[in-house]
Amino acid sequence: MANIDYYFATLSPYTYLAGTRLEEIAAKHDATINYKPLDIMALFGRTGGTPPKDRHISRVEYRAQELLRQSKNLGMEFNLQPAHWPTNAAPSSYAIIAAVQDGSGNVGKLVHSFVRACWAEEKDIAQDDVIRECLSQAGFDPGLADSGLLVGAETYAANLEEAVDRGVFGSPFYITEDGQRFWGQDRLADLDHYLTEING
């Protein structure tokens, strides 16, 4: 069985635009997904990236055009300037980490619930009521929002260190068990093709 390490940020619009395609690809190839939320702003600082607010205007304008094009092509509702962005990504990330350990619901659905809440539903994913709602929608006990905060914080930090060590520099980022790296939701088709090739 193949394994895919999935590094992502719940604040990333590109994680939202990935939808649930990774989960569909994993199911197609009988692969498991290791969900690894991380602090994208810290990752930028560690790997030579620049936070959106500090980028040259040419990059800011291109990003805006590209996000709107991609969301339209994918048929996904999208707000280029959501009311609650940026916000604190840690609480939603801790909830995902707790959900992975719990294992009773659908982690992929949970991740998408968070990013959809931010980029399409005008919700603040740092707020407890939003976190509980997303957990419930994905089949988890909303009480997970209150559990494992220390473990969540430790894992969140460890995911960042691991990502830096493994050459991750953006979100979403996918690494196969043989070390092939795929950056961006627009590389999911390449990941699919690669898994088809290695699985014969």
Overall number of domains: 1
The proportion of strand residues reads 5-15%
Text of the CATH class: Alpha Beta
Largest sheet: 4 strands, mixed
Number of strands: 4
> What is the string of helix and strand elements?
EHHEHHHHHHEEH
Percentage of residues assigned to helices? 40-55%
Task: List the quaternary state of the chains.
Answer: single chain
For the largest sheet, list the strands in their spatial order. Answer: 2-1-3-4
Give the class from helix and strand content and strand pairing: alpha+beta
Poorly predicted runs are: none
- Fourth-level CATH superfamily: Glutaredoxin
Averaged pLDDT: 96
The fold-level CATH name is Glutaredoxin
Distance between the termini: 13 Å
Q: What is the number of helical segments per DSSP (H or I, 4+ residues)?
A: 9
Radius of gyration over C-alpha positions, nearest whole angstrom: 16 Å
Shape: globular
Using the 3D structure, state the CATH architecture. Answer: 3-Layer(aba) Sandwich
Structure description:
There is one protein chain. The protein has 200 residues and is an alpha+beta fold. It has a single domain (3-198), classed as Glutaredoxin (3-Layer(aba) Sandwich), CATH 3.40.30.10. It is 52% helix and 10% strand. The protein is built from 9 helices and 4 strands. The chain has helices at residues 13-17, 21-28, 40-47, 57-74, 90-102, 107-119, 128-137, 149-165, 188-198; strands at residues 3-8, 32-37, 173-176, 181-183. It has a 4-stranded mixed β-sheet with strand order 2-1-3-4. The longest helix is centred in the first third of the chain and has 18 residues, at 57-74. It starts with a strand and ends with a helix.
